[in-house]
């Protein structure tokens, strides 16, 4: 019998399988997972906020826009997600069209500030962004250190929800500021790196309405699995097949319902989310400073001013919200991120100068800087709200 014809022992098979597993793990570890890698940067410049609405093959769209092969896009996004460079991948929703939404500022005694932060982040699934903010000088509204985004499903009271959070956290006052209009809603930290102050679009930003959309039982059956975070193993060009199966319908019907929700203004974007402030697994920071800009403009000119703020490329969010007397009647707000505080202030000066140049008077302006922050998607399901109320002992 030739030596090559000898049967392979069980132990030899085990050793071979072990070697293959180690090789697979090493291959995964060898895939670049940092944002500075040029291929990853090209992918992230698209995948952070360039895939608008619902698309049947978001991976294919990322590949086409970035010029990277679909197989490489899949490999790189999965590797970055496993490494923690990307903190989540998901289909976002226009939650302001599905539930009452607001930015809420909280006045909390200093000794309770961190515990209130933890309670809202860990125990309130309806609070999304949770941020401790400060100002460079003690000015109007500076006592409001804790800021959250809050979504309360249709049929429930945001005021009562906030009162309950006060009772649980020791917050003394709160200010609810719903968005009357949106002008910018995106992220795109990677593609915003290196922007020159004053960089802006040729035209003012579009106006995004915030009306509530009524959903059917089938709509919810599709929406719930659609919005859930995507695991590394799911990333493929057949991204929605498993979610359709979960919803108990065909892939074609799942996509048809999702496309209808998209037409009705319910769907946001498909996105890979990076950490805003916290260091990535390799120690890099995508951003370091989170600035909430405030402007008070003449009543009646809020939409015009908001569209002008929204045309500046540095802005990740811009909206019309009423701050009231506590915030010197601020009515236009926006968020920008960066790694250099002075550069962010230069961006804001460029916007202030633009307001002056086009004849939009500003009676008050300020910057609230973000410190400690945590971000999670706000829950919007009425069923989940009822379950949470029962756990909290609420009606």
Protein architecture, described:
With 395 residues, the protein is of the alpha+beta class. It contains 13 helices and 12 strands. Strand 10 and strand 11 form a beta hairpin. Helix 8 packs across helix 10. It is globular, with a radius of gyration of 24 Å. The N terminus is likely disordered.
Chart the SSEs and their pairings:
Layout lengths: L9 H21 L7 H10 L3 E2 L5 H9 L3 H14 L2 E8 L5 E9 L5 H11 L3 E8 L9 E10 L4 H12 L3 E5 L1 E7 L3 H4 L24 H11 L13 H7 L3 H13 L3 E8 L14 E9 L4 H9 L4 E10 L5 E9 L2 H18 L3 E13 L7 H11 L3
Antiparallel strand pairs: 1-8, 2-8, 3-5, 3-6, 4-5, 4-12, 7-10, 9-11, 9-12, 10-11
Trace the largest sheet across and list its strands.
6-3-5-4-12-9-11-10-7
Q: SS-based structural class? A: alpha+beta
Strand content: 15-25%
Cα-atom radius of gyration:
24 Å
Describe the largest sheet. 9 strands, antiparallel
Order of helices and strands: HHEHHEEHEEHEEHHHHEEHEEHEH
